[in-house]
Design a protein that fits this description.
Layout (H helix, E strand, L loop, with lengths): L3 E8 L2 E11 L6 E8 L4 H6 L2
Antiparallel strand pairs: 1-2, 2-3
Amino acid sequence: MAKKSVATLQTGSKRLTKAIKMVKSPKTGAYTFVESIMMPEQVNEFLDKK
């Protein structure tokens, strides 16, 4: 994992976070971006997962 990015989004009364991480493909060696919108409490879990 080479890069982590986190942005905070507010929609109405919900507070959401968009997290983006770069993941290296074991098959080709190329990097891909994985994006997810979630609650702020779940960001560290998402970034720590492989």
